[in-house]
């Protein structure tokens, strides 16, 4: 006769462990779930228009410059700073690239390289005052917002500059398509989607096995497989939508490279660990030997470079460098970082979270535009979303502190 009294607690323990893993994963990936919820909501409200292939492609193309800025901004915020100048820097670099590529007739690639170099110099200028003179980043970048907005107007002469060479315009409007011929569903795009799925699955399996080899707790196999299946379906559906329209946007390729590079920098490099250490406790980081001034300086050099790249992508998309370029970019980038989970006090934030935060803003913009909601209400809704995201972060910290 079997003793069921010893089996039932084991089954209950396993069920409890599975449930705790699921709840923990849902909590860690709350921002991703929020993105899915926003997409589902606007898909219903727009009767499926939001999920048409053209709209999905436009979501990347129209918001690429904000996502680029969000990558740099989250690193600035993690280190305990803020940058209010990125919109003006983007406008300034867009104007400078117009002078190089249109007025001076330089080769498109040289105009881009020179513009990115000037953006890095702008970041070095601001980083010098912040890191070595000790002026708060809020003040320096507020001054930079005025300085570089004014310089953008000087360079433009209060007039628009266009049109740009086709290769330059590809940064914001180009697509990688028809490489293998003209197909209704672009095979290259689907192939890239499949490779992305394979790479993700291999990485997840290796991570799980690595944890098991060290005797660390891992999630239940069923939940692990379910997550992989869901993400696989999502990635392939996204790839199919792009393949059904024009293929892979060049902007998406730029973003993918940036996410991979900066993901490695923030997660696996000494420089990345120093950024988080400074944001968590600057004094303790200094006592540990972290060269905080150098780290701060290079953070803003990097931000200047990414602001320049965002300015080039935006200018290329419009095929125009104008005085109004860059208006509000800094607010969108900061919102993306905070909605994506960056902490106001610094020390917390991820590249992936900032990208998802930017996508939430993009879906809100796209969905509300399809519904015909006025710009005034769009601004109000985005403001509320930002407020609730930060309030949620503060609430979680208080709850953790009281636990």
Silhouette? globular
Helix-and-strand structural type: mainly alpha
Overall mean pLDDT = 87
Helix residue percentage: over 70%
Residue stretches low in confidence (pLDDT < 50, at least 5 long) are none
Instruction: Summarize the helix and strand pattern as letters.
Output: HHHHHHHEHHEHHHHHHH
The biggest sheet amounts to:
2 strands, antiparallel
**What oligomeric state do these chains adopt?**
single chain
Beta-strand share of residues: under 5%
Radius of gyration: 23 Å
- Ends: how far apart? 45 Å
Number of helical segments with 4 or more residues: 16
What is the spatial order of strands in the main beta sheet?
1-2
How many β-strands, per DSSP? Answer: 2
Description:
Helix content is 77%, strand content 1%. The protein is mainly alpha-helical and 403 residues long. A two-stranded antiparallel sheet has the order 1-2. Helix 3 packs parallel to helix 10, helix 3 crosses helix 15 (351-370) and helix 5 packs antiparallel against helix 13 (292-318). The chain is globular, with a radius of gyration of 23 Å.
Labels describing this entry:
single chain, 403 residues, mainly alpha, 2 strands, 77% helix, globular
What would a concise description of this structure say?
With 403 residues, the protein is mostly helical.
Topology at a glance:
Layout (H helix, E strand, L loop, with lengths): L3 H25 L1 H16 L7 H26 L7 H18 L4 H26 L3 H20 L9 H8 L1 E2 L10 H27 L7 H24 L3 E2 H19 L1 H11 L1 H6 L4 H27 L10 H11 L11 H20 L4 H28 L1
Antiparallel strand pairs: 1-2
Helix pairs in contact: 2-15, 3-9, 3-10, 3-13, 3-14, 3-15, 4-5, 4-6, 4-13, 5-6, 5-13, 7-13, 8-9, 10-11, 11-13, 14-15, 14-16, 15-16
């Amino acid at each position: 006769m079997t003793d069921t009294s010893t089996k039932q607690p084991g089954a209950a323990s396993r069920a409890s462990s599975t449930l705790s893993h699921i709840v923990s994963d849902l909590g860690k990936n709350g921002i991703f779930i929020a993105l899915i919820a926003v997409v589902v909501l606007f898909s219903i409200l727009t009767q499926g228009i939001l999920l048409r292939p053209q709209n999905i492609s436009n979501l990347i193309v129209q918001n690429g410059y904000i996502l680029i800025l969000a990558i740099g901004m989250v690193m600035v915020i993690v280190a305990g700073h803020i940058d209010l100048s990125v919109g003006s820097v983007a406008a300034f670099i867009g104007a400078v690239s117009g002078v190089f590529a249109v007025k001076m007739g330089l080769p498109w690639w040289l105009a881009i390289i020179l513009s990115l170099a000037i953006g890095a110099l702008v970041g070095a200028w601001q980083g010098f005052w912040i890191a070595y003179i000790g002026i708060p980043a809020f003040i320096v970048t507020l001054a930079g917002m005025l300085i570089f907005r004014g310089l953008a107007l000087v360079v433009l002469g209060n007039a628009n500059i266009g049109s740009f060479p086709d290769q330059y315009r590809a940064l914001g409007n180009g697509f990688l398509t028809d490489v293998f011929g003209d197909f209704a569903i672009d095979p290259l795009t689907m192939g890239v989607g499949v490779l992305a799925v394979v790479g993700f699955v291999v990485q997840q399996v290796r991570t799980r096995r690595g944890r098991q080899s060290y005797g660390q707790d891992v999630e239940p196999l069923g939940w692990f497989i379910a997550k992989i299946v869901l993400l696989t379906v999502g990635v392939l559906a996204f790839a199919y939508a792009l393949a059904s329209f024009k293929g892979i946007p060049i902007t998406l390729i730029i973003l993918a490279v940036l996410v991979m590079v900066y993901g490695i920098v923030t997660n696996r490099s000494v420089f990345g660990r120093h950024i988080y250490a400074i944001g968590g406790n600057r004094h303790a980081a200094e006592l540990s030997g972290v060269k905080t001034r150098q780290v701060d300086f290079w953070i803003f050099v990097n931000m200047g470079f990414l602001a320049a790249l965002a300015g080039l992508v935006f200018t290329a998309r419009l095929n125009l460098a104008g005085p109004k370029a860059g208006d509000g970019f800094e607010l969108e980038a900061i919102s993306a970082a905070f909605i994506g989970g960056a902490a106001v006090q610094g020390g917390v934030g991820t590249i992936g979270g900032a990208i998802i935060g930017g996508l939430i803003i993009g879906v809100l913009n796209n969905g509300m535009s399809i519904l015909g909601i006025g710009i005034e209400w769009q601004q109000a809704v985005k403001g509320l979303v930002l407020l609730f995201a930060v309030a949620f972060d503060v609430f979680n910290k208080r709850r953790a502190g009281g636990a």
